[in-house]
Amino acid sequence: MLILNKTAGVFLKPSKGKSFNFHPGTLFLHKIVLGIETSCDDTAAAVVDETGNVLGEAIHSQTEVHLKTGGIVPAVAQQLHRDNIQRIVQEALSASRISPSDLSAIATTIKPGLALSLGVGLSFSLQLVGQLKKPFIPIHHMEAHALTIRLTNKVEFPFLVLLISGGHCLLALVQGVSDFLLLGKSLDIAPGDMLDKVARRLSLIKHPECSTMSGGKAIEHLAKQGNRFHFDIKPPLHRAKTNNEKGKRGRTHRAILFCKQRDLLPQNNAVLVASGGVASNFYVRRALEILTNATQCTLLCPPPRLCTDNGIMIAWNGIERLRAGLGILHDIEGIRYEPKCPLGVDISKEVGEAAIKVPQLKIEI
Ligand code: KG4
Ligand code: ZN
């Protein structure tokens, strides 16, 4: 049973450290979307308006619980989503000071992600949609990561995006709100997954400064204090051949060159966006910046707290879809979550067949 105050009663202070517009209680004249995210281990919700003002936000992270069990146990994640979703949605609405009846639509992540987690967000959202009689906008989690940058920066289509998170590593050309060309993806596991495994092996949870941090965040935090010359670590895949289509280095570099060669991106000032949890890492950003400088591109990344999972990116994707008139459902009959779901049209074979020679680039940070 959902209990939502007609006019949201509790007025929360906005959380600190936002570099984007956060205007709780602002007079709204625009379309407003409630976004709900439960695809993995964060229960998150936000209310965002058409101009990108974040009117309210709330998030409950399960990181601490999953760190103790050494990884996400889906049934535990599901229970925690169930325990928190009502409160989190209520907090986001209360902070926004809008009445739920003023929402233009409800947008929720339905793909890809953990089945049990996605299910909680979807069934909660569908009840709310029925109760408030609002349109429903199903959201693709990775598309939402990719378009977050358009909330914080003025970025036109097309742009290249590198999505690096706990579950994915994707390179795509973003041509429109739901028009993606997949250029390539990781050979094996996602970078966030790898960092989490390394952190676990090093028992970083036992480090007093890192006990509540995700693996990737803990590694970045400790690496800043370390001596980078202590071990001679070779860059990954450095022995792979680079002079044929099987070349394994400089994948992002190759994607930039491919897009320019095919006139899919402008020759000058093309934009590379990096997003997803691992893109909050400043070492990764610096490496990408060296690449974009060498290829006359501009690197743009959302602020770290918008790179990791959040409700704002889901609400914003709802706004993007509402503005473009794409995927707005007035009938929710038969809507299902999809744990596995590709991103866009896969042209990675074509990229490989183009056999583009990638020049050597020294990445020294
Ligand atoms: O996008 P995200 O919040 O969730 C998924 O969609 O997967 O990404 C979570 C991943 C985790 O693997 C976490 O270890 C990693 O992002 N991560 C980081 C940092 N903060 C989070 N990796 C490197 N550096 C960070 N600062
Ligand atoms: Zn994510």
From TrEMBL:
Gene this chain is encoded by: OSGEPL1
First and last residue of the signal peptide: none
Any one of the GO BP annotations: tRNA threonylcarbamoyladenosine modification
Known role: Required for the formation of a threonylcarbamoyl group on adenosine at position 37 (t(6)A37) in mitochondrial tRNAs that read codons beginning with adenine. Probably involved in the transfer of the threonylcarbamoyl moiety of threonylcarbamoyl-AMP (TC-AMP) to the N6 group of A37. Involved in mitochondrial genome maintenance.
Claim: Secreted is one of the keywords in the record: no
E.C. number: 2.3.1.234
Occurrences of domain Gcp-like (ranges): 53-316
Family, per entry: Belongs to the KAE1 / TsaD family.
Catalytic activity: L-threonylcarbamoyladenylate + adenosine(37) in tRNA = N(6)-L-threonylcarbamoyladenosine(37) in tRNA + AMP + H(+)
Cofactor: record remark: Binds 1 divalent metal cation per subunit.
InterPro entries listed in its UniProt record: ATPase_NBD (IPR043129), Gcp-like_dom (IPR000905), KAE1/TsaD (IPR017861), TsaD (IPR022450)
UniProt keyword list: Acyltransferase, Metal-binding, Mitochondrion, Transferase, Transit peptide, tRNA processing
HAMAP family per UniProt: TsaD
Cofactor: a divalent metal cation
Localisation per UniProt entry: Mitochondrion
Originating organism: Rhinopithecus bieti
Any Pfam family hit: TsaD
GO CC terms of this entry: mitochondrion
Principal localisation: mitochondrion
GO molecular function: metal ion binding; tRNA N(6)-L-threonylcarbamoyladenine synthase activity
Name of this protein: N(6)-L-threonylcarbamoyladenine synthase
